[in-house]
Structure formats: structure tokens, C-alpha cells
């Protein structure tokens, strides 16, 4: 898990959010970006996940304070 600036849906700004790194180490060695999926603590995504959501079972083990969901449908490339 990392913290990255995730853009608002209307692109009016960004907010620091936890994210899951989904790119491989080989990718990181050759390119300046990291591929991540943002993590949301919004209850609606955890209680009723959509097809692009993956609720984290062990959210406390990774240091999150609330039940959380990886938003797989919101893949982002961010600078290292």
C-alpha cells in the first residue's frame, strides 16, 4: 500500500488516498511510473461492491482504519 494523489472525478483537484500497487517489480525497474488502484473506505463500496471493486478482508493488517475496498475500475499511473 502507498499514498498517492487521486484526482477528483471532475478533475478539479486531487486528494491523497491510500492505493494498492498492482504493477510488477520488472515494470518499476524500466519505467518512471507505478500502476495503482485507489482504496476507498466509503461503506457503499464495501457493503455492496460493484464489478470493479474488491473489498479488503484484512484491511486492519495493512494499516487501514476502516473497512475498505480496492477500486479496481479506477486504475491510475502515478510517478514514483
Instruction: Kindly state the percentage of residues in helix.
Output: 10-25%
Low-confidence stretches: none
Order of helices and strands: EEHEHEEE
Total number of helices: 2
N-to-C span: 13 Å
Structural class per helix/strand content?
mainly beta
Overall mean pLDDT stands at: 92
How many domain modules?
Answer: 1
Task: Describe the structure concisely for a colleague.
By secondary structure, the chain is mainly β. The chain is 14% helix and 40% strand. A hairpin with a 6-residue loop joins β1 and β2.
Provide structural commentary.
This protein is mainly beta and 80 residues long. The protein has one domain (2-32, 42-75). It is 14% helix and 40% strand. It contains two helices and six strands. Strands 1, 2, 3, 4, 5 and 6 form a six-stranded antiparallel β-sheet that branches. A hairpin with a 6-residue loop joins strand 1 and strand 2. The longest helix is centred in the middle third of the chain and has 6 residues, at 25-30. The chain is globular. The mean pLDDT is 92.
What are the salient characteristics of this protein?
six-stranded antiparallel β-sheet; mainly beta; about 80 residues; about 15% helix; single chain
Amino acid at each position: 500500500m502507498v499514498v498517492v494523489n487521486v484526482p477528483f472525478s471532475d478533475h478539479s483537484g486531487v486528494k491523497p488516498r491510500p492505493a494498492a500497487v498492482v504493477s510488477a517489480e520488472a515494470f518499476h525497474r524500466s519505467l518512471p511510473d507505478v500502476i495503482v488502484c485507489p482504496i476507498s473506505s466509503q461503506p457503499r463500496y464495501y457493503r455492496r461492491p460493484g464489478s470493479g471493486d474488491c473489498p479488503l478482508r484484512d484491511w486492519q493488517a495493512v494499516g487501514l482504519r476502516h473497512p475498505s475496498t480496492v477500486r479496481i475500475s479506477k486504475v491510475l499511473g502515478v510517478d514514483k
